[in-house]
Amino acid sequence: MKLGKLLDKLGELLSADRRRQREKRDKLKTLLKQMKQQQQELQESLDQEEDPEKRAGIALKLQILIEQRKKGIRLRQEIKKD
After folding, report:
1. What is the pLDDT along the chain (82 residues), one digit of tens a residue?
2. How many domains does the chain fold into?
3. Residues 6+ apart with CB under 8 A from 32
4. SS3 content of the chain, % helix, strand, coil (to 5)
5. Pick from 18, 35, 5, 38: nearest CA to 79
6. Which of 1, 12, 23, 30 is the 20 to 30 A CA-CA neighbour of 72?
7. Largest Cα–Cα distance of the chain, in whole Å?
8. Nearest partner of 47 among 58, 32, 31, judged by Cα
9. b/e map of 13-41 (b: 16 or more CB within 10 Å)?
10. CA-to-CA distance for 32 and 70, rounded, in angstroms?
């Protein structure tokens, strides 16, 4: 193969990789929005709940969701840097 054809194939490969990264970043964005909505709902239910056992369960779910969301945000930022 000539150099021109090799460079064309390389460009196609790179563009496909970038396309996949963009799709992954967009999916993460929608997922993070859903997680933020769930976080707000859990916070509201935590504020309204009076039973200490139920509050502890909701608080645990909320803390897990917050940590997962932080991890997702970091991953999205890493993909965006590339």
Report:
1. 788 888 777 776 778 777 788 889 999 999 999 999 999 999 999 999 999 999 999 999 999 999 999 999 999 999 888 6
2. 1
3. 69, 72, 73, 76
4. 95, 0, 5
5. 18
6. 12
7. 73
8. 58
9. eeeeeeeeeeeebeebeeebeebeeebee
10. 9
pLDDT, position 2: 84
Range of the domain at 20: 3-81
Q: Which amino acid is at 62?
A: L
Nearest to 72 by CA among 26, 28, 24: 28
Amino acid letter at 53?
A: E
Residues 6+ apart with CB under 8 A from 35: 65, 68, 69, 72
